[in-house]
Amino acid sequence: MSAARKSLFVAIVLGLSVSTTYGVVLQDLLAGETVTHGDKVFSNFFVIPTGMGTYTFDPATIEVAPVVIEGNLGLLFAGVSTGMSIVSAGPNSYIDVLVGFDVTVTDPEWSISDIHLSFDATTPVDGFAQIVETAKVGPVIVGQIQVQTPPPSMSAEMEFLPQSYTTLSVVKDILVLGGGSESSDVWSFTQSFSQIPEPTTLTLLGFGLVAFLRPRRLKNLGAPLAVALAVVGVLGGSQSVQAVPLQTLIDTNGTITQQGKVFSDFTFTIDSAQGRYIASAAGLDVSGVTLGDEDGIRFAGALAAFSNLQPNSAVTVTITYKVTAPAGVWLTDASLGFNGAVTIPQATATVEEDIFANGPLVGELAVAAPTPLSDHTLLNGMYQTLDVVKTVTLSGGSNGVASISFINQTYSQIPEPATVGLLALGSSFLLRRRIG
């Protein structure tokens, strides 16, 4: 199909899609249903709600409907009834909801290049509402955008992602803070994606474009099109076990097990705090995750400093835990990612991590808003047990907001050296027999 005819076909599909698709209740999507919209499939939905005080969020009352926004395919999250709030925090309360899903482009000639987000929310002068969206490929965060009120910033977009992708894992964090005497509400939000031809398709189109333009001496080429040709090998989503409140893990000396790795000995300490902030072990959930080919844990829930409500608000906390690999396995690498977000350049949101093995420091990681949101380190050796110390710092500056709503921690592993030796001997034996 020619490029012109392809564009016409896509335009026709986009024009019809609003009338040929329908909404699905979010609760059903959490049970495993998917949404197919044009050439995109939305799947692997999950939610993690946490909060304190009086708040509302019910997946059974939220409809997820396919929409077309300025020619881009996407989803609308809204109440099943007109005028229904989908996330609400009452006076002196807050709620933080992680909503995640995967988006996959089924047409092999196209891939996702941009992400777009908008929302409808109302807050009193002493309240706050925000959505921070992160796009991930395995454990690596490749893009982030945010909207919030106040100040009014009801829509945002990212042009371009570091490269184009056929699959993305999207995590939206909805943080709603009620005022002193009034509630704050999110009424709806929309998500859409722009896409471009796959790099191989673009290359072929490029050859045709040059052939077409050369007789015209390359006149009127317009702005150059930058295309990243790197290809990510593994586009893994996230799978998680049942979340457990961090405070419960601390009180009961509980553990989280993910693919054989055991996470234990959790602690949470507020080192310093001032002004208006959120920081509580009871407001954080911990769950196991698999991101790409790495297994680990996720801390989900709000940590925030609101200098927009009280100037120079800040909080620093320390989170510690132990990770133990299953027998016959050694931990070799560690990855860290988060969705830290700030509303003004002077605000800060950081996580600094030290990793110890039987005393000595064997690895360090650090992430910060707005960058870097992901970090990876090769440990100084191979270990079965590690002690991890995370220092989380949030400062809203003079009048901004700093927030974090998830921290992902994953590890790479290899078989222990003795097992590797046995595997090598076995491979050598098989090769010798084949050669003989």
Provide an overview of this structure.
- The protein has helices spanning 3-20, 26-30, 199-213, 246-252, 417-435; strands spanning 24-25, 35-37, 40-52, 55-56, 62-69, 72-79, 87-89, 94-105, 110-122, 128-137, 140-149, 155-158, 167-177, 184-197, 238-240, 244-245, 256-258, 261-274, 277-278, 285-291, 294-306, 314-324, 329-338, 341-342, 348-356, 361-368, 374-383, 385-395, 401-415.
- With 436 residues, it is mainly beta.
- The chain has two domains: 3-197, no CATH class; 238-419, Jelly Rolls, CATH 2.60.120.
- Strand 25 (348-356) and strand 26 (361-368) form a beta hairpin.
- The model is unreliable at 1-20, 199-241 and 418-436 (pLDDT under 50).
Structural shape:
globular
- For the CA atoms, what is the radius of gyration? 24 Å
Number of strands: 29
Q: Count the DSSP helices.
A: 5
Mean pLDDT: 83
**What share of residues is helical?**
10-25%
Largest sheet: 9 strands, antiparallel
Low-confidence stretches: 1-20, 199-241, 418-436
- Terminal Cα span: 53 Å
Structural class of the secondary elements? mainly beta
Tally the structural domains. Answer: 2
Note the beta-strand portion. over 45%
